[in-house]
Amino acid sequence: MSFSDRIKKWQKSYKTWQEKELANAKVAQEKLRLEREEARRKQELAKKEIQETKCTCQACGHVWFYGKKEKVEQDSNAMANAGKGLMCCTCSPLFLLVPDKKVVDLDKCPKCNSRAIKKETVVHHV
Length: 126
Ligand SMILES: [Zn+2]
Known about the structure:
Blueprint: H1 3-48, E1 49-57, E2 63-67, H2 68-88, E3 117-125
The chain binds zinc ion.
């Protein structure tokens, strides 16, 4: 094989490699673009909809709202307290020193403490 033939062969394989790399890069780019678009769409959806629960007290007529965050906090606090109660059964004195986390009672009117409340879910579009 002559030197020029070898150059030609090398050039050819280089071209094939280059084309393959370019195609790969295009696929990767397209995938990245789709992923970004999907993430943006999700972000926008999350931004546009805020779900809240509207509570109306049947006793005093007080109206208040709580969002998803408070519900999640209430659940995790209740869970932490439940876990602590369980730990107390093993008679570890350390756990007696941990103060109870305040659990927001979402089923009670904050004004008159009545449990006669009406709940409805409202969705705000921002
Ligand atoms: Zn009330």
